[in-house]
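Person: At home tonight, work slowly through the protein below, taking as long as you need, and write a paragraph about the fold.
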Amino acid sequence: MMVHTAQLSNSGGRWRLYVVVLEGRVSQWPEYDFGPTAAVPTVAERSRALAGLGFVFTDGAEWEWTEYSETHGDDTSPVRLLASVLVCSRDGGTS
């Protein structure tokens, strides 16, 4: 079973979920756009989005949140949030 990292980020008022796949280009990573919303997608919404992309949480996986400055090194710039969780292909393959 190949394990991947799924990440949830917000940019321009849109939450986006994507799965980091080491094979291929970034533009080919599976991605789901939750559309314009201020609310953070619930765990259930994220789970459904991942399932739609062909992935499920690994056993015991939990979302971890990280904050970072929009402008690196500028502690007055807006803070961005990035969440990540470990996932695997729904069918156990190497997706």
